[in-house]
Amino acid sequence: MNYVKRILGGNIRQYVMIIALVVVVLIFEILTGGILLQPLNISNLIQQNAYVLILATGMLLCILTIGNIDLSVGSVVGFVGAISAILILKMGVPVGIAILLSLITGFIIGCWQGLWIAYIGVPAFIVTLGGQLIFRGLTMVVLQGTSLAPLPAEYNFLAAGFIPDITNIQGFNLLALLCGVIASILFIINETNKRRNRKKYNFEVTSIGVFIFKIFAITAAILAFSYALALYRGIPMVLVIVVLLVLIYTFITDKTIPGRHIYAYGGNPKAARLSGIKTNKVLFWVYVNMGVLTALAGVVFTGRLNSATPKGGYGFELDAIAACFIGGASTTGGIGTVVGAIVGGLLMGVLNNGMSIMGVSIDWQQAIKGFVLLIAVGFDVLSKSRAKG
Question: Does residue 202 come out as left (phi exceeding 0), alpha (psi in the -120 to 50 range) or beta?
């Protein structure tokens, strides 16, 4: 038992939600009679929850900075979607330029809110709550209370399109399977190198048996996932976007100086400031980044819906915040990973999808998701209190 605690103790936060996700998937696969893991439903699950995963990636960085959050992201999603629809449908702006202008809009919004938070000193909760009201109101103003639709196929491709296959095999997408094989090989090489480096510097590593089991389980999951995609229409474009974001932001948070500064600031702001870190600058760019990712989520959501609506993005901030905390982010900042936030978002997505297939009412869905969030945060608090004890 002591050996198990020693091996898993430092990694329990990393693994517990992955285990929970697997358990939830298996439960709903049984309860839905095998519908949950049908290839069509898996593709729908990805496309329906892509905006949450994009928002959760940015929200994680906000939470890392001493537990700050952004309550405005749902309203900004709706506002950016409205702006892009107006540019395309009413002003005749080409799709590519409209998307670029939408992202620039998110950048400006991020700068606006980051200025108030980082340099004027207004608490992030107040600034983003004000932003929530401002941009929800502006969305109603620019849309004049009506929806704009339909949007061009080129615009919708980001949210609902699929990467073309390299062959013409009927009913099977070879590119999806090949990508799964390549991803599995890269994962094995990366994990092997990480283990070798840890041993080289005399850091503790898991036993060879645990390591092999981890490699086998995750590789099997990647291959099964890619095979399911191959049986439908292949790789959704939005999946490519999410994977690229995960890789980029994992690299930034783990391997770069700005990433280390974010964790240092969240761990101890005073110590970070005394060590020479420009904490105001860190906080400012975290919210600028949140603005850009929110704009991207707005484009994806509007494309998925094929319409810009006054109520677009309603409640999205709660899904993104819940995804981060369920994925292991700490309420006090300084702890959390991009992969954890993605796992938390997927868990929420599976809960929504599975309960919808079973015909569970929206009221009960909200209650169950709230209960899951409470358990996740409670686990964080208890684990911290035990560590101090």
Answer: left
Token pair for 25: 């998937």
Using one digit for the tens of pLDDT, what is the confidence trace for 54-109?
999 999 999 999 878 999 999 999 999 999 999 999 999 999 999 999 999 999 99
What is the distance between the alpha carbons of residues 267 and 57, in angstroms, rounded to a whole number?
A: 19
Q: What is the pLDDT of residue 9?
A: 46
DSSP 257: H
Q: Hey, is 356 helix, strand or coil?
A: helix
Residue 12 lies in a domain: no
* Cα(27)–Cα(354) distance, integer angstroms: 9
Question: Which structure tokens are listed for 275?
Answer: 């060590």
Report the run of H or E that residue 207 belongs to, with start and end: none
Rounded distance between C-alpha atoms, residue 328 and residue 64, angstroms:
11
- What three-state secondary structure class fits 308? strand
Q: For the segment 4-32, what is each residue's pLDDT rounded down to a tens digit? A: 445 554 456 667 788 888 888 999 999 99
**Domain end call among 200, 235, 270:** 235
Tokens of 17: 């939600």
Residue where one domain finishes, among candidates 235, 257, 292? 235
* Residue 298 and residue 216 share a domain: no
Please list, residue by residue across 311-320, b when 16 or more beta carbons sit within 10 angstroms of its beta carbon and e when fewer do: ebbeebbbbb
Answer yes or no: are the C-beta atoms of 146 and 85 closer than 8 Å. no
Shortest CA distance to 60 belongs to which of 190, 249, 200? Answer: 249
Tokens describing residue 56: 């959760």
Contact 342, 57 (CB under 8 A): yes
Gap between the Cα atoms of 58 and 61, Å rounded = 6
Phi, psi for residue 318 in degrees, rounded to 5: -70, -40
CA 192, CA 186: separation in Å to the nearest integer?
10
**What value does the CA radius of gyration of the chain take, rounded to a whole number of Å?**
21
Q: Which domain holds residue 104?
A: 36-161+237-388
Shared domain for 154 and 216, answered yes or no, is: no
Statement to judge: residues 116 and 148 lie in one domain: yes
Query: CB count, 10 Å around CB of 58?
Result: 29
- The number of folded domains in the chain is 2
